[in-house]
Design a protein that fits this description.
- α4 links the parallel β3 and β4 (about 125).
- Helices cover about 45% and strands about 10% of the residues.
- It is an alpha/beta fold and about 290 residues long.
- It has helices at about 20-25, 30-35, 65-90, 105-115, 135-140, 145-155, 160-170, 170-180, 185-190, 200, 225-230, 250-265, 270-285, and strands at about 10-15, 40-45, 100-105, 125, 210-215, 235-240.
- A six-stranded parallel beta sheet has the order 2-1-3-4-5-6, sandwiched between helices.
- α3 packs across α4 (about 105-115).
Amino acid sequence: MFKPEQKVKGDIIFLHGIGPNNVPYLEWYGRYFKKFGYRTSVVILPYHLSRKPNDVEDGDPYYSPEPNECTVLFHNSVKDVRRAIDLLETFDDFSENHLYLMGVSFGGIIGTMSLALDKRIKKGILMITGGNWRWINFYSPYTEKVRERYAKEKNSFGCDSEEFCKKFRSDAANFVKNNINSIDDIFQKTPITCYHYDSLSYAKFVNQPVLFIKALFDKIMPHKATNELQNLLPNKKVKSLLAGHKSSYIFKRIVGRWVINFIEKDQPQEIWERSNKREEVLGSNR
């Protein structure tokens, strides 16, 4: 947790990406946001850092080809986010009107689900992320191990290739748009379990304002996955970086300013002015 020295203006739940080495460098955002008065809580997701067995690579269980296993894993991550909010609510300086969430990459997937399921979060920032497991599982270089397991083992539904996947997800975005009208529908009307933990399924229920940040040269998160999630979010503002997935970190100060401006947009003018002056001072000292 990164707590400002001055009065706390609000809380940001921060969700990191999947895999090793993601947490330390993304904690830069926590140090940045606290300078502007925002307490930032970095939720360490299951199977990362101290939350994993020694013989497991960080985040590896999330690459399971079994939808039933992934449903449990992903929803447990959402539960962790909601427990973190429960804890923040016990703090004397917590403000229920100033709770925000920022999710990066895999954290954006969990963040989308969390925003749909917990309306205590007032605004969301989703960065270099996407939806639709067809695109992510079969086109991202990071999910090669999933494709290998599909080909060697199949899963309990018989999935062994993208061709099989297309039987249930040939046009997942339009299926969700036209058929899923409630959270319950995600579990009752979808043809296969992988919809249950797909951020695409939850996007249309994210009615909070969202700042959606994408990297135009992203090869890790497929462009179709990014664009389909973006299109289904009903209340978003989109920003683009001339960067790839990992190189987007180079623009962290720009992103940091975007986030502060976004969450303070509807706050009293004196708070907005103080933060802008603070940014000018920080800029002059860089």
